[in-house]
Amino acid sequence: MKRMLAGVACAAFAGSSVLFAQVSPPAPAAPVLSAEAANIDAEVDEGLKKLGLDPADVKYVVVSHGHVDHAGGAKFLQDKYGARLVMSAADYDLMERNTPTWRPKRDMIATDGMALTLGDFTMTLYLTPGHTDGTISTVFPVRDGDRRHLVATWGGTSFNFGPIRARLLSYAQQADRFRALTAQAGADVILSNHPGLDGTHARVAALRTRTPGDPHPFVVGNGVMQRYLTAVGQCAQAALEIVSA
Ligand SMILES: [Zn+2]
What we know:
Helix content is 40%, strand content 20%. The chain is built from 8 helices and 9 strands. The chain has a 5-stranded mixed sheet with strand order 5-6-7-8-9, sandwiched between helices. With 245 residues, it is α/β, with parallel strands linked by helices. It binds zinc ion.
């Protein structure tokens, strides 16, 4: 992951300071089980160290939404390393209603359009409620050698909240809004917070055989970004069609 894209090392695994929290259990598509949550601390700690990064360097943990496979390691990083947690108010509320054992302390509250800056790195956060009431999607710069790119992450993908019209409607509207935002910004790298959903494993494998001059496997271009966000929005619209009013 460290060599994935220069900014992602910074943003994704706290290379210089920011952790974009993606604490996936071993089987991201599986229902969340407490046993998986119990392994998260070791995954975060050992995973960062395996990448040659010091977990104590983590300054911010930006959590896309309050489900255990994304927020489950936040308490550990708060308690052990004093990292600041950034989440939406709605998803702090979600965790407080459910009171899981891994619930972190309420800390910084993300707002729509919020810029989180460390040195010359700035991540922009957008509230895109749908997958949860306070799902955060982000945009941030990365580098591939001298080339600059812009990453966009869609903060929550599945409709596992059930047939709730208001949520599906919000999901569709936010996908459309985020599509317009990322079009205007020129984002050309899309990262899912579930590696199984965006071809991450194949792309990482492709990096191993990449030779100078080859395109970067994670840089898909703004057109693909637009089509991806159009598709997720249309999926929400389609789901709305079959959910009774
Ligand atoms: Zn989720």
